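step=predict obj=ATP synthase subunit a n=279
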Amino acid sequence: MNLYFQLDLYLYNDNLYLYLESGVVPSPLEQFEIIPFLPMKIGDLYFSFTNPSLFMLLTLSLVLLLVHFVTKKGGGKSVPNAWQSLVELIYDFVPNLVNEQIGGLSGNVKQQFFPCIFVTFTFLLFCNLQGMIPYSFTVTSHFLITLGLSFSIFIGITIVGFQRNGLHFLSFLLPAGVPLPLAPFLVLLELISYCFRALSLGIRLFANMMAGHSLVKILSGFAWTMLCMNDLLYFIGDLGPLFIVLALTGPELGVAISQAHVSTISICIYLNDATNLHQ
């Protein structure tokens, strides 16, 4: 059975046959491979500048440069171009999101959270959109990266909760009116639920971005393989997967935008719970 499969590929596609003969089978997960560019070791600590580091740096630089050139004195135009309109749209969207999701605080206090939420939203948005570019790298498709980002935000929100409420911040573990016999179990459940927020924030972003990109990669590889086969039947059969790939590109673009939006909403909700103690 394996011999027939290899001969069939050899008759229609020599390159693919040789690729399989070498023992290396193309995988849809190759696009998520981490490649070290500048490995460094200091004592027992290992540092490496990798492709995720490069694309995160490029994304952050793009966001900062875009905001700088649009918001600097004389940088804005009376008739905004596409980039200026994009920044203004995001700049109007984030304050509205903060005002809607964070209640019980004065406008000045809410504005203190605006820079962090604005940078987080734009960074996630551009990281997700960057992954739609061929031969680029989807930073948010790696669990350790999204987990590190979510834990950093989670720790920061917890610190804000203690700063604003002191030890009274721990009162969220035991809502009022709970019977005393149930208190130990409820405290444990609330603590586990609170800690899982950091995991859920990172897992949701990672899972959605990786699943969508993997599906597009699988269908693209299948369509390309059939397209390379010198047979009219295969070429006609390739039109189906090709149209599916084109049809999935739009929803995947929507997922990239919506995941940045959903993650930002979650951050605002967690921040509201920490500052207002579920009130």
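step=describe
DSSP finds eight helices and two strands in the chain.
step=end
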